[in-house]
Amino acid sequence: MRYGPAVRRRKLGAELRRQRELAGLTSLEAARAVGWHQSKVSRIETGSSGVKPADVARLLDAYGVTDAELRALLGALCGAGSPEPGEGAGARRGWWYAYRDRLPPAYLDFISLESEASRLSTLETTVVPGLLQTPDYARAVTRAALGDPAPEQVEELVRVRMARQAVLRGEQPLEVCAVLDEAVLRHEVGGPEVMAGQLRHLVETGSLGHVRLHVLPFSSGGHMGITGPFVIFSFPRIADLDVVVLDHLTSSLYLERKEDLRAYGAAFTTLRAHALSHEKSLEFIAGINDGA
């Protein structure tokens, strides 16, 4: 288990090493090709140091990588959301960079991964996933989670959460598959009116072709998800970049080992199989809102 930035650097380094090997170059030859010391290439490949987007581009040029999608993905994994000290002004920035001094690094890294992933699979046991929350619901959740926050802090965090939802729009929106325990739908977060609006929003968002919702009703009994929620980020074309995120009260843990990814992937598949279908889930959610 590692914290997010370390995970991202390691995965980026592993893919750069793979591209170097595909190009038939040693680390020394790669270093000479870009005018660096061999130790710099080694540090980048092991994930022990950060790397600027411009340096990733230089390496990919040296390796003859012309695939625009691959180059964009690896460039994004440089850490635009939480830049390295001394990073040049021309580095690619995500919208969340403006919040770098006010949000925890782990949250910035989570947003960065979310913005570049192609698919998000999540199990939620207590609250609606952030990407599917209404502003009022997000406001109520934030107040509850922080205890007694200042109003301006709450509003800023809600703005960030709403900005994150941009990944659900556009030409290539993030695919979301969410398994929701029935408790998520029954907790009256913010009161009946706020919750009614949130349930309506879930049904509306569930009508999008790239959002799939699956409810685990109380009648399904115990399930492997009772140990807690998790998120699986999947990336286009490179399965080795996939990450599992476990949220805790004061931090997030990122699981990157292949055995962890297999275990959580299998768990999610099982949970979805035991849950209601997408269509029946939308009916179930609408029924709760209607007082059923």
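(the above was protein one; protein two follows)
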Amino acid sequence: MRALRTLGAALTLCAAAWLTAAAPAAADGKDGTDGKDGKSGTEAPTEAGTGFRTATEIKPGQQATAAASTGDYLYWVFPAAAGQIPEVEAELKLPDASSRHGSATWQLDVYDGLRRHQPCASGTPARRAAQQDRTVTVSCTLRQVRSWSERWANDPLQGAYYVRLTVVDLPAQDLGLPIDAEVEASVRDAGGSHADGGDMTPLNPVLRAGTAPGTDSEPPDDDTASDSADDKGGEVPHAVAEPEDGWGSGWWSDRWVWTVIGAALAALAGVGGYTLTRGPRSPGRPPIRPGSDI
């Protein structure tokens, strides 16, 4: 009975520890969707930038649209935190086949905050559309975003990620034809099996204001702009806003579940081993005291 009571107490403590660890994680909803439906609650952008500095910011889960011309470079930017896997998908609605003169290859590229091209772990980043095709879809899934990396490595790090969409091969007569683009970026947690340690400043470039339209003013240099922002007490604008849950992956990981399960199994094995090795005791014979006569 004592062994059963000890085993029951051990299992109760393990269950309490697991529930205590799992409850905050369920409340946080750290899946890049703010615990809702994956939308940011704001209207999705309806235009795209033409370069890294003018890239249009989109939130994970938003479906951005843009009307452009064939041959344009379209840029968007979104945030990704450590421990997440970014996924980008773009769909292009092409002009009518009668106005085109052949097939074209469309390409989706993803760059990090240092403008380093990031290879796709899966997906189809480049696809050739035949002349009769009305739509073409390209996609790219990156590797897990890390919180730190060696200097020589090209690992994806937390911060801003730029999406570039363009055509790389087409008949010259088709340049300038109108197209409609739909882009959606999403992030999902990689899980504890991919967790790593370390900390690093997010790769989130600072935006510098340029010459305003209709004025002759010159853009301030980097030092002057930074000093003026600091003097006024305002925030320096960055490429993307920091996610609500921060850039880090947080303390919760599904490794906690396996740790608790392992602790419960270890407690069960310890109680069982003690019960087997103790052996039976004779209830009718008192234990022998040292120095007493047998």
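Reviewer note on protein two: The two ends are 31 Å apart (CA to CA).
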